[in-house]
Design goal:
The protein has two helices and 27 strands. The chain is mainly beta and 339 residues long. The chain has a single domain, classed as Neuraminidase (6 Propeller), CATH 2.120.10.
Length: 339
């Protein structure tokens, strides 16, 4: 019990939402970083006032950005030139508050023209939202007859399958929640025909998830302060995983008390991984070499590329939406195949 309480306090400290303790900064760890972010680039705060901002997604066919405020159970909309974000959807997740610490949506991804994919913590599933009517269709809610914990983030594979992580962060008590039905905190794949399989069961708190541009590598972050790592796998054409390995280990950084843990991530069109972790967004080459860091001074939960030219890195960081201009674009968007 004491160990569980200590871990809960460590998680709460890492994901707390104080005002930034240090000024935003962009730092190169290797000369190659200058090709990705122009020298002198500055981190700008675009909007604030959130409880815990998450899951930013650029809606290309609308020219705006959406993000989740998970505790407030809202999705906000921000448009270029706006001085504030406006409420787009409330509730964004479930309507049942009992037993939930974070009932709102979390990760968001494009679902097709006029559609949005949601990791819906309150409904404990993956959903498809019609951006015009706000109608929601649940795509996955159970595995082997048991409800998911609280799906956190998602990515679309090269074959149109939806891959997602399922830690228990949305539930009061986290792992100790009486609502928790799954025996593990897993990573799952929803095939285009709707069949769901568990592809990873060995991570304590799987969180962010992303694919390389060619779809042959899967990345998953583990938001465990005792093992703050990003794992990578080879992905076959049929969607099976092999060659499980540690892509980046940030455990020592977490032990130093830097804000944040391995969380959301995105990939640019050159194959570099932009991954949140202790201290900010860490930028890695496809070979796992860290070449740069983007910091807001506080914990960063997630990031994505977007904007009119696709070259802006948007970051959700505790109570703010921040951005920095880059020389790269996000990897081409993959859309789910649904029946």
């Amino acid at each position: 019990m004491l160990r569980r309480a200590a871990l809960f306090l460590a998680l709460a400290a890492a994901f707390a939402a104080p005002a930034p303790a240090a000024p935003p900064a962009v730092g190169a760890r290797a000369p190659a970083f200058a090709a990705l972010v122009p020298p002198g680039a500055e981190v700008r705060i675009l909007a604030d006032g959130f409880s815990w901002a998450e899951g930013p997604v650029w809606v290309a066919d609308g020219g705006y950005l959406l993000l989740s405020d998970v505790p407030k159970n809202r999705i906000y909309r921000w448009s270029p030139g706006a001085v504030a974000a406006s409420v787009f959807l409330e509730p964004s997740g479930g309507t049942e508050a009992a037993g939930f610490r974070e009932p709102g949506s979390n990760g968001l991804k494009p679902g097709g023209p006029g559609l949005l994919l949601l990791a819906d913590q309150g409904h404990r599933g993956i959903a498809l939202l019609d951006l015009r009517t706000k109608a929601k269709r649940m795509l996955a809610e159970r595995f082997e007859g048991r409800r998911f914990n609280s799906p956190n983030d998602l990515a679309v594979g090269p074959d149109g399958a939806i891959w997602f992580t399922d830690p228990p962060y949305g539930l009061e008590g986290i792992d100790a929640s009486p609502l928790k039905e799954q025996p593990v905190n897993g990573v799952y794949r929803r095939a285009p025909d709707g069949r769901v399989t568990r592809v990873e069961a060995g991570l304590r708190y799987p969180n962010g998830i992303a694919f390389s541009p060619d779809g042959r590598t899967l990345y998953v972050s583990n938001s465990d302060p005792q093992r703050a790592v990003i794992l990578a796998w080879d992905v076959s054409a049929s969607g099976t995983l092999s060659r499980r390995r540690v892509f980046a280990d940030m455990t020592a950084l977490a032990a130093k008390g830097l804000p944040g843990l391995p969380d959301g991530m995105t990939v640019d069109d050159r194959g570099n991984l932009w991954a949140t972790g202790p201290g900010g967004v860490h930028v890695f080459t496809a070979a796992g070499r860290e070449i740069g860091l983007v910091s807001t001074g506080a914990a960063i939960s997630n990031c994505t590329f977007g904007g009119p030219d696709g070259r802006t890195l948007f970051m959700t960081s505790t109570h703010v939406l921040a951005a920095v201009r880059t020389n790269v674009r996000g990897a081409p968007v993959r859309l789910p195949k649904l029946r």
